[in-house]
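User: Please predict the structure of the protein below. I'd like the answer in structure-token form so I can feed it into my own downstream comparison script.

Assistant: Understood. Taking the following sequence of 538 residues as input:
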Amino acid sequence: MTTRHADEVDNGWAEAERWRGEAESLRGEVELLAAENAALRAQVAALSEKVATLAKLVFGASSEKKKPATPATSPANGADDAEGCERRRRGQQPGSAGHGRRDYSHLETVEEVHDVPADERVCPNCGADYAPFGEERAEQIDWQVRLVRVIHRRPTYRRTCRCRVHGVLVAPVPAKPIPKGLFTAGFLARLLTEKYVLGRPLERVVAALAHEGLDVAPGTLVGTLQALSALLAPLDAAIRARNAAAGHLHVDETSWSVFQTLADKANHRWWLWVFVGPDTTVFSIERSRSTKVLTGHLGVELEAGSLEAGRRLLVSSDFFTVYQALATLEGVDPLWCWAHIRRYFIRAGDAHAELAGWTAAWLQRIGALYVAHRALTACEGSAEHERVEEGFAAAFGAIDAARHLQAADEALHPAARKVLATLDHEWEGLARHQQFPALPLDNNTAERALRAAVVGRKNYYGSGSVWAAEAAGRIWTVTATATRAGCNPLSYLCAYLDACARAGGRPPAGEALARFFPWAMDRADRAAWWGAPSGPAP
């Protein structure tokens, strides 16, 4: 081989080595870009899922109730059965028993007689009189708002003798819930009902009063609410104590704003908590969403590791971390919410169209569980109970078998696998419902309890100060618990504030306070406090 040929071979090998190095470099870049591409795809998938979830929350239907299937798409009916199927109409269904005509005889009644003029009650031809033979009746309901100025006159009498007795006699000062206050117990009860039960902003209450002729400053009503909060404190404390000692609680929380700047808090975001017991409902607006709120209400410490000896507590909730932490206590048994786990399947189906069939199958399994649970609670004590109980266990068994079978499928979609991982992680708390079939499968009880407060949040955005937040939780606690006992909150508050007036503008104590415990009130009081107040209290 000549020198020239040897040089060419060397150059060729050098060029090959250079290209081999270039190829290795490009292969590394390709692998790096592939990894980045996979990460971006995963990020896009996660963001798409989040967008689908948020879009459903903002623009979707306000209820998660299953829509009636159209005849063409109903999985239960074939094509031959589709003909003749109609979508269920809204309202009362044909053939169903109606509620009948409502009775309004308990309302204050004013009769108006509309008679034919005397000169028209004669025959136009012969002049003979028409004879009465009955009457026709019709009803209307009038809505009147009446503000009354109550003037208390106390005549005074002076002594006319020289006896060593009182020189002047005068009747006692009329009792008032708020000493030296302007408003009666009836007015104050209606103020509390308007703002905290009906969710009406204070400015609108002021405007409504102005429309009826009463010009009152908002600051006057604010000071009144602060005084009313103090009057309700002992009743609120008794309700909270009973609630904290309950054996089963529904718990939930939602965001709330408190627009008072505090040195030790960076923002105005607080949290509204609700604790629903067997016969009490407690609301509390707290600075945080931490476990301290739960343990503070229940009077326990996580460091203790267990509840006091002999006590058991069932907690119905979602599986947020604070409830997971509470469940680590010995004596606390969580009942996780099936409605929440159901939403995980719905969101996966909304974010990934290819999972529509998988989602529908899981919703059908969970729906069958709810149907079996309703049947079980409806036949309690009947001969069918054992058979229905087997159906309830079978519905749980179907879900358990499906989750194990699908978890072993290596071809399962990652989003579906993620949902099943959550189901598997929370299975113990979800399956515990089999041991307590009398309790609801979900935490909708707590979510429904928050509705009135959420309406208020939409109307007046939150609380203007810490004391106002405390007052809101206190008043919601009292009115919600009274309502659960079958009381009209307006009548109940009016009676309680009358008792405060008789106690000299202070909260009642002892037996006088115990009379207002909703779980212990007698039938007479419950019946009396269901009707609306007849008029302003003196």
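That's the full token string. The two ends are 127 Å apart (CA to CA).
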